[in-house]
Amino acid sequence: MRSSIRVAGVAALVLPIGCESADEREDWFVDVAPELGLLFDHTSGVRGEFLLPEVMGSGLALFDYDGDGDLDVYLVNADSEAASGNRLFRQDADGVFRDATRESGTGDAGYGMGAAIGDIDNDGDLDLLVTNDGPNRLYRNNADGTFSDITQSAGIEGARWSTSAAFCDIDEDGLLDLYIANYVTNEPPYACASGTGEPDYCGPNAYRGVPDRLYRNNGAGFVDISVASGIAQTARNGLGVVCFDFDGDARDDFLVANDGERNQLWMNEGDGTFVDRGVRFGIATNIEGHTEASMGIALGDVDGDLRLDALMTHLGGETNTLYLADPLGMLLDASALSGVGFPSVADTGFGVALADLDQDADLDLVVANGRVQRGADSTAAPGGEAATDTFRRLYAEPNLLMVNNGRGWFDEHCEASPVFCATTEVSRGLLTADIDADGDLDILLTNANGPARLYRNDIPDKGNWVKLRLADPVLNRDAIGATVRIRTGDTRQARPVVHATSYLSGADAQVHFGLGPALAVDEIEVIWPDGARERFPGVAANHSTVIRKGTGRGDGA
Amino acid sequence: MVVRLTSLFALAGFVLTGCAEQTPEPDIPRVETRGMEAPVKILIDAVTRNLEGNRQSANAWGRLGRVYHAHELYTPALACYRQAIRLDADDSHWPYLAAHAASEVDKDAAVALFERARALASGNATVLVAQGDLLAQLGRRDTAREAYLAALDADDRSSFARVGLARGALVEGDLPRARSLLERAAELAPTDGSIYPLLTRVLAQLGEPEPAARAEWLAKVYDTPLEPRDPPLDAMRRLAANSHALASAARALAERGDLLGAEVQLRRVLAIRPGTPLELGNLATVLSRQGRHAEAMEYFAEGLAGNPDDVVLLSHQGLTQMKMGHIEAAEASLERAATLDPAYPQAQFNLGVLRFGQGRHADAIALFERSLVLDPGFTDAYLNLGSTYATLEEYEKALHPWERLRQAQPDNAALIHNIALANARLGRLDEARSDFQRVLTLDPANVASRRELERIPP
Hints:
The complex is a heterodimer.
Chain A: E1 29-31, H1 53-56, E2 60-63, E3 72-75, E4 87-91, E5 97-99, H2 101-104, E6 112-118, E7 127-132, E8 134-141, E9 147-149, H3 151-154, E10 162-168, E11 177-182, E12 192-193, E13 199-200, E14 213-217, E15 222-224, H4 226-229, E16 238-244, E17 253-258, E18 264-268, E19 274-276, H5 278-281, E20 297-300, E21 309-312, E22 321-325, E23 331-333, H6 335-338, E24 349-355, E25 364-369, H7 387-395, E26 400-404, E27 410-412, H8 418-421, E28 427-433, E29 442-447, E30 453-457, E31 464-471, E32 483-488, E33 491-496, E34 500-501, E35 505-506, E36 511-516, E37 523-527, E38 533-537, E39 543-548, E40 553-556
Parallel strand pairs in A: 31-39
Antiparallel strand pairs in A: 1-30, 2-3, 3-4, 4-5, 6-7, 7-8, 8-9, 10-11, 11-14, 12-13, 14-15, 16-17, 17-18, 18-19, 20-21, 21-22, 22-23, 24-25, 25-26, 26-27, 28-29, 29-30, 31-36, 32-33, 32-37, 34-35, 37-38, 38-40
Chain B: H1 2-17, H2 38-52, H3 58-70, H4 74-87, H5 93-105, H6 107-120, H7 125-137, H8 141-154, H9 159-171, H10 175-188, H11 195-205, H12 209-221, H13 231-237, H14 243-255, H15 259-272, H16 277-289, H17 293-306, H18 311-323, H19 327-340, H20 345-357, H21 361-374, H22 379-391, H23 395-408, H24 413-425, H25 429-442, H26 447-455
Helix pairs in contact in B: 1-6, 2-3, 3-4, 3-5, 4-5, 5-6, 6-7, 7-8, 7-9, 8-9, 9-10, 10-11, 11-12, 14-15, 15-16, 16-17, 16-18, 17-18, 18-19, 18-20, 19-20, 20-21, 21-22, 22-23, 23-24, 24-25, 25-26
């Protein structure tokens, strides 16, 4: 449906400003994965049997596992029978990625779904959890380029169909605990069909939901507190999970995106238990009171009121839903009011990011799309077509790029990036980060039964930026669950510090702010995970800065 | 976006022209039928042949459109509906169905088609609510509000129009109006699951925690949104001949208590393809509910042969075995189901029923309570939990789940009778009298309540 104009590369650069034509305009994003050595083809074992896990895709993690200051990439694969399993790509000083799977020991051969990262032992490096349709895998980072498989000793293996996971500190002991979302029972498949009876993937409601798991980190390992905490009370089809303090009580809560069932907002009661307040806070359903097929989640302040809003991606026919936080902390479905809704109805969204791509001091939106059920008018397969080709033909969709106008209204902006939008694939995982360390946010995308894409940000005339990394010198070293606020003149922005985001994915915790034309940040405020507030002096634009707890001006908890 | 605008203009031109003579007769839209299930292919072929002999018949075009529509072939359906509109510009059904088909592929076109349907079917609240819902989804709040208000003018008991207006009021921050609309909608449609999540949020925002907590609980009990009664859309959907639609129709018929109808649909599914474990289990359950237990057991066995660990089948098989008096077999099935998936509330509940029958009341109570933790909307579990306590003559404890359920079902005569009986046993005669009288208001033929009422001294 969107423009499929191909652009003429750098020719647009020489045109005078204001005279460029659509045909000659430089694309906002360029896929540089092949040239940077990020060669990865996802396979999910498609053999024409229409097994549900095949269509769910797999996620990724972006993190500096070797502590050399640049971001490395972990890509999850699904088909354990395929030649390529999960892959860890180390980014070297030349910006090229080299396969470090074997030397790092992270090539889990399970039917991979997602990846989550967190410093579970507070030793200053990031550890890695791989979720599977089957036993999960936990790797402890040995700080020498290798990982140890500590799944058994940590006690988190499980044997369900796990999807997204989040490390965060639920009991304020400074140790990252672990929430694992589970999807559905993986029974032998029911024979589902399209509207005309052609074989197709079943929706999740043909199966039954599985309770999620919550593990408390006691320093020596993880203890399953799913039942005692109340998390295991209900069995729903969990796909996405983020961890954040949604009610401002300095305790981390969980927001779970459920596929075709009400989303859950597990509020931390502070006594080891959680209560689902999704309905009360307005995020269980859309504004019509209808459940939606929720897949991925992104958090961010889209309207500049310093309150964190939430965006969830959904099935075609539904909107992607933007929940705006109000002064009471309620989350109001503002999909129509923000422009997010309508352009998203045609496609099925999974991975998602709210990120200031053009650095004009507001959050833009990128969504990885791809069907889970046949196209409405899909035709029979040509004779001899390979199963994976059929899969891509029937389920591929264009991705979505929307730009914030600075007041919380989003306009579809795919004409600026046919490369990102019109490369129709079955896209699933998506993260944004400054992968090439040039200050702007790039996009890393995974496809089900397709290649990973690294879209380098080539947006012209971007604003200035700062990148801030929080550091707690003692516990929860990456300050997961904190909020960073900055002020530049009259403009205020806020970012959550999270690892778990999007769909099946784990992100670097550094926060990025676009500044527009401002040359400096006037003031920085951090609300630490324990509720303590500190103010820090401003910093010059176009720099990365580490903010250490205890070195600012405290405002008290 | 260019494509969308083009199709909007094309459609607008078509709608405004409305002049069949100036438009060349379109080809009949055809689809590739290879790979389709045989009944679908046969139906499409038959309706297409009928149209080939009646190309000037709006009904013939509309019928092919409805067949395509029922099988999710929206683009050819839309083309057929458009030709039906050209041939019979006064029939509101075609633009209405076309609007629904267009909603799946081209929402801008759907807006124009709803407008046309509305003009032809003035005063049809269902059309107006559907138009309002689409406009609201597109963010066109003012026109959506106008459509909902027109729906209320057409039918002042429309809960759906009120919910639509409430959504708009909520977006505008007019919480008192949203509350008023939602509370009235809840009076009119107390089981509509779309009401309570909104009402909960409104009440919480208004700072009324107790009503908000009640609404929050009702949101868990009634978690399925209702849809307006819509004969044209329902008639279209009934044309679906694919096995998946037949299986869905069977489930709907079974829920309405039409067991024979459900059985027929499920047997049609099995004639098209081998049944899934769930479908075999559904057929078995439908047979069991008709008292045909032996037949039912054959289908349970067939389904479980496909998946021995299917807890849904095991749980329903256990219930049938209970009805047959095969208690040991029932116990084995239900314990296996509850062990395989401790989070499946129906298995916990059915095992509770078995334990109750075995006189293991404490176990039954624990199982009913567990099923309620897993599913707060499991109304039978409230009833059985109260009944188990009542059997133990623990009436105070019995009242708790029953009173909880009364919040959701204030007109459930059987429930109120139980509550009255418990209060009578506890010596609360005024409350008991009042509730027995309430039962007789709701159900004047209720002999048991009349007898109990007569026993209470004046």
